[in-house]
Design brief:
single chain; 156 residues; Ubiquitin-like (UB roll); DNA polymerase, domain 1; 2 domains; 5 strands; disordered C terminus; binds FE2/S2 (inorganic) cluster
Length: 156
């Protein structure tokens, strides 16, 4: 039995410890906001927070989160500045990558409330978006952090 906290609530799951955390979140706990993209830790679609750090749930065995705190996109309040900013900046296109993008952005702003463009590009580089929303993501992060976006940039 694996016991851990998900979005503040204790969960007990009877699965093999090497089951990917992503499968447990989606299939056992019904938290389908976290997406499956590559399954290899390369795209960031499955990003969740584990003890406050953004991690790839597709390559994290659930046994590794025993006793830890996991937060998914469902655990970020609707009135969180990042979610509000995402809507205000109309960031999403198809939306598939966006839960992972938001989880990375929330973690970035928690550690660096007023990031530079370089900070954002570095923190977000593991989150791929096939729709190319990088420019709006950057603007939304600046806005959520209360900093004005600069013009230009390589990932727009
Ligand atoms: S699905 Fe986990 S990094 Fe791509
Ligand atoms: S919004 Fe479509 S993949 Fe990012």
């Amino acid at each position: 039995m694996i016991v851990f906290l998900v979005n503040g609530k204790e969960q007990r799951v009877d699965v093999s410890p090497d089951t990917p955390l992503l499968w447990v979140l989606r299939d056992k706990l019904g938290l389908t906001g976290t997406k499956y993209g590559c399954g290899e830790g390369l795209c960031g679609a499955c990003t969740v927070h584990i003890d406050g750090r953004p991690e790839r749930s597709c390559i994290t065995p659930v046994g590794d989160v025993q006793g830890k705190k996991v937060v998914t996109i469902e655990g970020i309040p609707e009135n969180h500045p990042v979610k509000k900013s995402w809507l205000a900046q109309d960031v999403s296109q198809c939306g598939y990558c966006q839960p992972g993008q938001i989880m990375s952005a929330v973690a970035l702003l928690a550690s660096k409330p007023s990031p530079t463009d370089a900070d954002i590009d570095s923190a977000m580089s593991g989150n791929l978006c096939r729709c190319g929303t990088y420019g709006r993501i950057r603007r939304a992060i600046h806005a959520a952090g209360g900093r004005r976006a600069r013009k230009g940039g390589s990932r727009s």
